[in-house]
Design goal:
Strand order of the largest sheet: 3-2-1-4-5-6-7
Number of helices: 14
Number of domains: 2
Structural class: alpha/beta
Radius of gyration: 21 Å
Number of strands: 13
CATH topology of the largest domain: Rossmann fold
Strand content: 15-25%
Shape: globular
Distance between the termini: 12 Å
């Protein structure tokens, strides 16, 4: 079976990481041949090294107003003659269906669904319902199958009229890699707390910042919070940190491409998101055997169980977050137990090999 694995504009978030895994499906089944391609606006600034590593075909365009991608993608389809087109994210089904309409192509379309579109800035909030309604309409009328990364989304799509026969849940999975070289050294006398995330409102980072003064007031143990990532909320989060007078406890590190190394140095990993689907960041923390605090949103509770592989708390609750932090800061035995449990569950359920096997079932049904 020949598969065109197609994405519009690569990102280092969950969709991008899944796209990279999908590119290697042939390693799990020799009968599947995957050609990965990225429609790549050249005016966008992002790391393209991952695309090179999987030998992705780059469909280069000047910007999002350059519609030459229609002709160029059609040429690629004619070249590889795929049996299915596997597309991703909010733009995926839109671009595939445009090409199919334009050239009267009958190739089946399979889509991966990673949750609702949440506007990264207030200026873009008006487009969120348009994106989400369009996506549902395309799924309902044109998608042959939708791959979901967790059951939370399945309930949502069923509620919105998507046929259950189209839906297939395949949890995310990541390679079981361990860091052998680590050039990061943190003060041993401090408990290190980490977060790796895009800095936008949906990630709930402001609630983590608001929890820090409460933690400082109730524990004498020294700690520091390391925030990795960039995004539209970066300046605002720094301002909140300054206003709360917690600059001595917070380090903003910007975008980093060595997340496993940072995870290896942290004692606690925090995921304070307001929305998640099947978080890759959470799986990375589980793989690293970290003590985890995560909110009870979306698919998080499909990955971890409260007081087993993590401490789970409601979203938007700085008090609950501060209490969970204090509990882990002051109890090294609990940190060790939760981290070990998280690592064990990752190995059983969320490795890349497990994901690939489940995904192949979905593609070949």
């Amino acid at each position: 079976m020949r598969v065109l694995n197609l994405i519009w504009k690569f990102s280092t978030g969950g969709i991008g990481k899944c796209f990279l895994t999908y590119a290697t499906l042939s390693s799990a089944d020799n009968n599947i041949c995957v050609t990965s391609a990225c429609i790549d606006p050249q005016n966008c600034n992002y790391d393209r090294n991952n695309l090179k590593q999987i030998n992705a075909r780059i469909i280069s365009i000047k910007n999002k107003k350059d519609f030459s991608w229609i002709r160029k993608t059609k040429a690629l389809i004619d070249e590889i003659k795929p049996d299915i087109i596997f597309c991703h994210g909010f733009n995926g089904p839109i671009i595939v269906q445009i090409i199919k309409w334009f050239y009267n192509i009958k190739i089946p379309m399979i889509c991966s669904y990673h949750g609702l579109y949440h506007a990264p800035t207030p200026q873009k909030r008006f487009i969120a319902p348009i994106f989400n309604r369009t996506q549902i309409w395309l799924y309902k009328h044109y998608a042959n199958r939708i791959i979901l990364v967790e059951n939370f989304s399945k309930k949502y799509l069923l509620k919105n009229g998507i046929s259950i026969e189209k839906l297939f849940v395949c949890h995310n999975g990541i390679p079981d890699i361990t860091t052998t070289i680590n050039n990061i050294t943190l003060p041993q006398e401090e408990i290190s707390i980490g977060l790796a995330s895009r800095l936008d409102s949906v990630k709930g980072i402001e609630y983590l910042l608001q929890a820090i003064p409460l933690v400082k007031a109730k524990t004498k143990n020294p700690f520091k919070v390391y925030i990795l990532g960039d995004g539209p909320l970066e300046k605002k989060l720094i301002q909140i940190s300054q206003k709360l007078n917690i600059n001595d406890s917070i380090v903003f590190l910007g975008y980093q491409n060595n997340i496993p190394e940072w995870l290896a140095t942290w004692d606690i990993f925090v995921l304070p998101s307001l929305f998640e689907y099947h978080s890759i960041a959470l799986l990375e923390a589980m793989r690293a055997g970290k003590a985890i605090i995560a909110t009870t949103v979306g698919g998080n509770e499909e990955s971890v169980t409260n007081h087993v592989e993590a401490l789970t708390i409601p979203s938007k609750d700085s008090i609950a977050l501060s209490e969970a932090l204090i509990k882990l800061i002051e109890n090294p035995q609990l940190r060790k137990k939760i981290g070990e449990n998280a690592r064990k569950r990752f190995l059983i359920e969320f490795t890349e090999n497990t994901m690939k096997k489940n995904l192949i079932k979905a593609l070949t049904l």
